[in-house]
Amino acid sequence: MDRDGNAHNLRLISGKGGAEVQRDTPAFDALGFLQSVTATLDLDGVLERIQDQLRAQVQLSGWIFYTEDDAESWSGGKEDRHRIEYSLSFSGETMGSLILMRGRRFGDEEQEQIEALLGLAAPALHNAWRFHRLAACLETDELTGLGNRRAFEIQGEKWLADCRRQERPLSVLAIDLDLFKNINDRYGHTVGDALLQRVADSLRAATRQSDLCIRMGGEEFLALLPGADLSAAMECGERIRRAIAGIRTTARACGDAVLESDGVVKITASVGVASIGRSTSLHEAYQAADEALYAAKQAGRNRVLAGA
User: Homologous superfamily of 149-306 in CATH?
Assistant: First the structure.
């Protein structure tokens, strides 16, 4: 419950009190803190600045912030035995929950410090949270829920930079459904769209949570695999190929191609694989994977081939 009834509607879910308050914490510069958290719309940056201040004020060990639908989470520091959890909302919108951790219990005065600080940060956190949600919508394919071309451009470059910094491999899979136009022509776009959604589900199931799955448009998909060398990427490509080949649905033909009974609709995919070298750009890797995909089509479709 919000102790002060403030408009930011900060709500304490659970917490353990009773510890003495540390008296040697530095003075809190409220104006400097506000300037810091309002200087960016990057949600990661705002959360980090809030936690930096909390560490200084109440000797925090670690923290976790997760969205209301549990779809995303951020964390820092290390887990510890005592936790306090807040539900954060602003202007009637629930943003998510914040868990704070440390080795000793949080005292009543410390909880008041935390709530006052979060109250100051609430408008900036809300702005960054809304900006993050808007960016996520702009980077999501509406039909399949996968990332879109924009996500590949933005997130792909970030992951490439991370892999280079950590000296980890990174691979790209270019995936294209075979003869998909024939399915749309024969069965209609409703059946085609349902198959695209099934393909998206297969991509999610065949890849890791850390991989980025993209619908580039039409029946063309991409998978970006951080930490996967060419051999691991080929294995992933084969898993995807088999999963897509196993998709089955039934539908009546439409237009001039009328079936006497319901027909079984199935689909296959060709996959091209490329691994990113030390000097290879993201688009160069995509082009290499796309060329391998074209070679797979030329070789008879429904297969996985590696780029040069």
Answer: Reverse transcriptase/Diguanylate cyclase domain (3.30.70.270)
pLDDT at 27 over 80: no
What superfamily does domain 11-138 belong to in CATH? GAF domain (3.30.450.40)
CA separation for the pair 100, 192 (Å, rounded)? 47
- For the chain, where are the E strands, in sequence order? 11-14, 62-67, 73-77, 82-90, 93-102, 170-177, 212-217, 220-226, 248-251, 263-266, 269-275, 304-306
pTM above 0.85, yes or no: no
Per-residue buried b or exposed e for 192-209, using 16+ beta carbons within 10 Å of the residue's own CB: bebbbebbbebbbebbee
For residue 172, what pLDDT is reported?
Answer: 96
Locate CATH 3.30.450.40 in the chain. Answer: 11-138
Q: Taking the alpha carbons of 174, 270, 202, 198 in that order, is the dihedral positive or negative?
A: positive
Catalytic residues: 219
pLDDT at 188 over 70: yes
pLDDT in tens, 211-269: 899 999 999 999 999 999 999 999 999 999 999 999 988 776 554 433 434 578 889 99
Tokens of 50: 């809030």
